[in-house]
Design a protein that fits this description.
3 domains, Rossmann fold, seven-stranded parallel sheet, alpha/beta
Length: 794
């Protein structure tokens, strides 16, 4: 052990080192403060991060993250932010806005010697969870050498775990909803010392979706603070800026004077595609770019799910993913990371990924649904051509949207040119989607919801000159999705779809010939075709198509001149054999007597009609094995109740179908029969449910009554002390030579609810004649009982 004098010397040296380090830190901090004060924000000499007056931990973190050269927005905004100015920053997508506010956040807190005891110093608000996670990752990289505590507060996680640590954080990255929840519910969370408020994608954060939450958050914050707003399409509303209490804000923009609001390396095209052809064109495009990285934007989560599920079954040959706001947080993060790491894949997404997210090396951005405005368009195409890389974007426009949308994009300085898909590579998936929806009710239901969501998204658009719902071919769009008809649009006022739908049922056409000539042509205007019409047109799809085609034709009489005659009677023939009389002369009576049985002709089984003119042939044809020789190969037959063979997919003759009456009349009759059958089935189901409930109540009452009476078969019998002699049982045994007397009939036990008379008979044991042992004297002692028992055992 060192002597006390040596310990005192080492302690003194340690104190001297610490004091020198503190003194050096103070000098460095004062020098840094002086450099910031002398900084000229408008200097053109600032091109690298090394030219900025940054602290040593921040400079090391930036260097370790491989950031060297400043972008335009960083060179203009960081010097102003370091001097404590409020900033409105606007720059093109992919221009490095994240570092423009993270570097000032770290530097300002460092110069104020911020510690954990000082509480929250900077609050960064993001409109989406994915963007908040991306900001937090960048903050961890460039701030790895600082001692600040930083946290991520977003939805989809346990609020209890966040509540324990949120009060000790110096920097918080959050979404508005979860941040407001902690401000209202977490007692240890205080924002009185907040120095900086940052809003990324400020125009989106300040819109109607987050307006109330942002207003409530701002009310909790101190008025004296530094505020910075950043976005590619910056808000300039005086009301928005007044709500945030900005003080002499500096507006920093790097693309207003430029020729284009989008990156110069981005090639932008639009394709005129009618609404019913959108899915076909999209599938053809994906099939032609299997080695590309593609983002497809749609207007709603239901559409994302339907297109993803449909294309996943069609297997275009490229990995498919989907992202929307209804997914759980873990799934969203997993899909985001997978798409970022992939080299060739396609993700279907809503606008939840349209802002700020940095996906590496995206080749194509496809906007299947037209964006609501030019700002949304700019943010969507900003997922590609980032950091001066090349990229391509395609906008799908309905002919009714072309003029208005191009005018809006022109006002925003968005250069876009028209292109056309190659017809050789164009393919249709309409029939495949129709089959999938016909066989999978869940996909059909999802398609109906997607159609409704798309229609609603068009209806609520603010630019009515671009989005006019009446100019879209909604019926064709529903058919292109594989739906049997366009779902009813409930939110439209004055919707007369119900009136139009019921009109053909009440008005029965009498012009049968014109109906026969038209066949499967397009319906007239105002006529609504049901799913049964489309089902009749789809031949040879599966077993159900043949089944439905037989439903109307079965047991239908045909009209004749002399009344109602069965259809099969017209096809019967009388065949008379030649009869030779003995005398050489033949009379009418002889010919009538000699006539054989009526011959039958069966058509459609073999290549030639089969004539059955004898009982022997009729008997042979009833054998399936014999009938195989006559029928054509590759056909299957079914036999009706009379033993008559039919083809499995036998179709009714079109002429016979029209002879039964007008198409509308047959349809109305079929619908009436089906409606009556459905109502009767509902009544039967309700009665069955009532009977089951009644039986359940009776069983419950019987079980409760049995419990009250003390009857419980599950409980094992227990010995009860009755006060009788335990040896009386052995004494009562019959002796040898004596017949066992029949026991007196016991009282009839009440039946349980699950027993019947047959159960008692099967459960009753059969009476057996027992061997009787005589005993001279009644046993009185234990020895007498042992002797009696030994005799019984022998």
């Amino acid at each position: 052990m060192a002597p006390p004098k040596a310990r005192r010397k080492s302690s003194a040296r340690g104190n001297d080192v610490r004091s020198l380090k503190r003194k050096r830190d103070v000098e460095d901090l004062e020098k840094l403060q002086q450099q910031v004060e002398n900084l000229d924000p408008k200097s053109t000499q600032i091109t690298d991060f090394s030219d900025l007056p940054l602290s040593h931990p921040t400079a090391r973190g930036i260097e370790a993250s491989h950031f060297k050269t400043l972008t335009d927005i960083q060179a203009k905004s960081i010097p102003l932010a370091l001097k404590g100015k409020d900033i409105l920053g606007a720059a093109k997508t992919g221009s490095g806005k994240t570092l423009s506010f993270l570097v000032p956040v770290l530097e300002n807190l460092y110069r104020q010697k911020w510690t954990e005891l000082d509480g929250l110093g900077a609050l960064i608000i993001s409109p989406t969870r994915e963007l908040a996670i991306q900001i937090f990752d960048v903050l961890r990289k460039i701030g790895r050498y600082h001692t600040f505590s930083a946290g991520l507060i977003i939805g989809g996680r346990s609020s209890e775990e966040e509540r324990k640590s949120v009060g000790r954080m110096n920097i918080l990255v959050c979404t508005p909803g979860r941040m407001l929840q902690h401000m209202d519910q977490t007692a240890a969370f205080e924002t009185d010392n907040l120095q900086m408020l940052v809003m990324d994608e400020a125009d989106r954060t300040m819109d109607m979706g987050f307006q109330s939450a942002v207003d409530a958050i701002v009310e909790h914050l101190p008025k004296k603070r530094q505020t910075m707003l950043f976005s590619a399409t910056q808000t300039k509303k005086v009301s928005d800026l007044a709500r945030l209490s900005l003080r002499d804000a500096e507006y920093v923009s790097v693309h207003e004077a430029a020729a284009s609001a989008t990156p110069a390396t981005l090639q932008q095209y639009y394709v005129l595609t009618p609404l019913p052809e959108k899915l076909d064109t999209l599938f053809s495009f994906i099939k032609s770019n299997l080695k590309a990285k593609i983002i497809v934007f749609l207007s709603s989560g239901k559409q994302v799910r339907f297109v993803y599920e449909s294309f996943r079954h069609l297997q275009p040959g490229i990995p498919l993913m989907h992202l929307h706001g209804r997914q759980k947080q873990a799934a969203r993060l997993d899909i985001t990371s997978k798409f970022s790491a992939s080299k060739n894949s396609c993700v279907f997404a809503t606008d939840v990924v349209a802002r700020g997210l940095d996906f590496p090396a995206v080749d194509w951005v496809i906007q299947l649904d037209c964006p609501e405005d030019a700002d949304t368009y700019i943010h969507r195409v900003g997922r590609t051509a980032r950091y001066e890389r090349a990229g391509k974007a395609v906008l799908f426009l309905d002919p009714s949207e072309e003029e208005g949308m191009l005018k809006v994009l022109e006002q925003k300085k968005v250069p876009i040119q028209m292109t056309k898909p190659r017809q050789k590579k164009q393919q249709s998936i309409k029939n495949q989607l129709q089959n999938m929806c016909f066989q999978d009710p869940e996909l059909k239901y999802l398609g109906q919801k997607a159609f409704s969501c798309y229609t609603k998204s068009i209806y609520i658009q603010k630019h009515k000159d671009i989005f006019n719902l009446s100019s879209y071919d909604l019926e064709g769009y529903a058919a292109s999705m594989g739906l049997p008809g366009a779902p009813k649009i409930k939110f439209l006022k004055g919707d007369d779809s119900k009136k139009i739908k019921n009109a053909p049922r009440a008005m029965l056409s009498s012009d049968v010939e014109s109906e026969a000539e038209e066949g499967s042509k397009k319906p007239k205007k105002g006529e609504v075709r049901t799913k049964y019409d489309r089902m009749f047109e789809r031949r040879n799809q599966d077993v159900l198509s043949g089944h439905y085609s037989k439903m109307i034709a079965e047991d239908e009489p045909e009209k004749a001149d002399d009344g109602l005659v069965d259809a099969d009677e017209d096809k019967d023939f009388l065949s008379v054999k030649r009869v030779l009389s003995v005398d050489g002369d033949s009379s009418e009576d002889d010919e009538e007597a000699a006539a054989g049985p009526a011959a039958r002709v069966i058509e459609g089984i073999g290549r030639a009609p089969i004539v059955i003119d004898s009982k022997r042939k009729e008997k042979l044809l009833k054998s399936k094995k014999k009938l195989l020789k006559l029928k054509e190969k590759g056909q299957k037959l079914v036999f009706d109740d009379d033993g008559v063979p039919h083809q499995m997919y036998e179709l009714e003759d079109e002429a016979a179908f029209h002879e039964r009456g007008p198409i509308e009349a047959q349809r109305a009759k079929f619908l009436e029969e089906e409606t009556a059958r459905t109502k009767q089935a509902d009544v039967d189901d309700k009665q069955l449910a009532k009977d089951k409930k009644r039986q359940k109540r009776e069983k419950k009452k019987a079980r409760e009554a049995a419990e009250r009476d003390g009857i419980d078969e599950d409980v094992a019998p227990q010995l009860v002390d009755t006060g009788e002699d335990p040896l009386a049982l052995l004494a009562s045994l019959p002796l040898d030579g004596e017949e066992e007397e029949a026991p007196a009939p016991a009282a009839k036990r009440p039946k349980r609810w699950f027993e019947d008379a047959s159960d008692e008979e099967t459960k009753a044991p059969k009476k057996k004649k027992r061997r009787v042992i005589e005993a001279e004297d009644e046993p009185e002692t234990l020895e007498d009982l042992e002797a009696l028992a030994a005799g019984l055992l022998q």
